[in-house]
User: Fold this.
Amino acid sequence: MLKEFFEKYFINPIKYNTGYNPVNTLVYAIILGVATLVVYKVLKKLKIEIDNAFFRALIPYMVFGAFTRALTDAGVFPRTYITVSPGIYFLVFSIAFPALIICKKFFKDWRGVFLWFGWGLVMVDFAAMGANLNKIHFNLEVLKYFIPFVALAEATVFLMTKKLAIVRENSYLFYVHFYDATTTFVGVDFMGYWEQHVLPRLLIGLTGTAGVMYLLKFIVLYAALWIMKKLEEEGEEKELLNFIKMVIFILGFAPGTRNLLRMLMGA
Assistant:
């Protein structure tokens, strides 16, 4: 009974690429929340500051995860439980976290070493792509839709920073999630792709357009940041809230970049 339940809601959606369902979405959300708190506590114990330098050092690992996922879609890497979502997040973490600990322990300029190790991983992906160009069918037509719509989306965020304090104080999060929303909008409405997540898929079906992703992103992000602002005012640890914002950034940047690379590679 338990085996059948696990296969139905967790194994088969990955095996047959049928997207997320309410059960695995809830479980993955809980795992993400717990993992975020645990990792934060470990970083604090290791005396690693959650600052801009640390954030910048994480960027290549975000690119590596998105690039690896897109190359899997293109057939360069085999489709396994750790090369597609959500397994790809565990794969990247299993590489990045030990690398972080080693760099912190053995190098004085550990942020720099950690940063360049991450870019080294991205170069491995480039090498894999170069060795498998016969499997990739570049489609630059994507840019005909992506460039104007992402420009319009980001201009909208800029205008919102003039009126809404929460958007202004967290503009980088709105910029990156509207970028992610644009990749979904272009992919679904113009390039023939489909949405894998439960709520967005439902709303797209109801409205007939993935343009609804902009509204969904805005409402969810604004509400989450409003709650976090209230928690900060009530004395919640600011560094923890900043770490949560970093996770929110990753959840916009990584899938958005994967979507864009996947479309550009015709996967």
About this structure: DSSP finds eleven helices and no strands in the chain. Residues 19 and 196 are 4 Å apart (CA to CA). The chain has a mean pLDDT of 94.
